[in-house]
Amino acid sequence: FRKIPISSGHKDELAQLGATFNRMMERIKQSFARQQQFVSDASHELKTPLTIIESYTNLLKRWGRQDQNVQEEAIQTIHEESVRMKQMIHQMLTLAASETTCTFTYQSFDLVELARDSAQLFETMNSRTIQVKSPAKSIKIWADREKIKQLLLILIDNAVKYSEKIVEIYMDQQPAYTTLSVTDYGIGIPEKEIPFIFERFYRVDKARHRKTGGTGLGLSIAKAIVMQHQGTIAIKSIEGKGSKIMVKIPNKT
Ligand code: ADP
Known about the structure:
The chain has a five-stranded mixed sheet, covered by helices on one side. A two-stranded antiparallel sheet has the order 1-3. It has helices at 8-63, 68-100, 111-126, 145-161, 206-209, 218-228; strands at 106-110, 130-133, 140-144, 167-173, 177-184, 232-238, 242-250. The protein is α+β, with helices and mostly antiparallel strands. The chain is built from six helices and seven strands, in the order ααβαββαββααββ. The longest helix is centred in the N-terminal third of the chain and has 56 residues, at 8-63. Helix 2 packs parallel to helix 6, helix 3 runs parallel beside helix 4 and helix 4 (145-161) packs antiparallel against helix 6 (218-228). It binds adenosine-5'-diphosphate. Adenosine-5'-diphosphate binds at residues 158-159, 162, 184, 186-189, 197, 202-204, 209, 214-220, 243. It is found in: Cell membrane. Its EC number is 2.7.13.3. It catalyses: ATP + protein L-histidine = ADP + protein N-phospho-L-histidine. This is Signal transduction histidine-protein kinase ArlS. GO terms for molecular function: kinase activity.
C-alpha cells in the first residue's frame, strides 16, 4: 500500500464529513423514534373504540334479543365507534404520508374561491353560516391545492364542531406572504392546553369532546401541511369565548 499523507485540508474535510454523517444519523434516529412513538400512540388510540365495540357486541349478544333499548343503543354506539375508527385510520395514513413523502403538486389557484367552495360544503351539511372575507376579490397562490383544501376543511370542521355560532374565514395577501385565519365564537381552549393542541392525538378533555367524534389528529395534519409550505400556524383562544387559527404561507411563484 502506498500511504497517502493527510494534509490539514483533508483533515478538515474529513472532520466535516464526520460531522455531517453524525448529524444525518441523529436525524435518522429522531425520525425513527418519532415513527415508533407514532405506532405506539396509534395502537393505543385504536384500542379505545375497539374495546367499546367489543363490549357493546357482548351486550348485544346477551341482551339484544330481549331488550329493544339495549339493541338500539348498542347498534348506535357500534356504528359511531366504527365511523370514528375509520376516520382515525384514514387520518393516520394521511399523516404518515405527509411526513414521509415529499410529493407536491404545486399549481397556481385562487385561495378565495377554494375557501368559498370549502365553506359551502359545511354550510350545506351543517346548515351553519360560514363567512368568507377578503379585501381582494381573488388571491392567487402557488401551492399544493389539494393539501390547502384539506387544511381549510380541518380548520372549518373544528370551528363548526366546537362552536354553534357563525364561523369567519379571512384571507389577505402581502407582497411576501399570504395569511388565512378561521375564527369561531365557541367553547375555546383553556390557556394551559394551548401549547399541546398541535400534538398528535391530543384532545382537550377527551370525555367532554367524545360526542364531537374527533380523533386529535386534525391539527397535526394541518401543521404538517403548513410546514410543507414553509409557513407558520398559530392559535389564539379564550375559553368560553372562541378561537382563531392563523396561518401564514410565504408567496412562491
Ligand atoms: P379533533 O379531531 O379532536 O378535533 P384536532 O387535532 O383537530 O383533533 O384538535 C385537537 C383538540 O384541540 C380538539 O380535540 C379540541 O379539544 C381542540 N380544538 C381544536 N380546534 C378547536 C376550536 N376551534 N375550538 C375549541 N377547541 C378546539
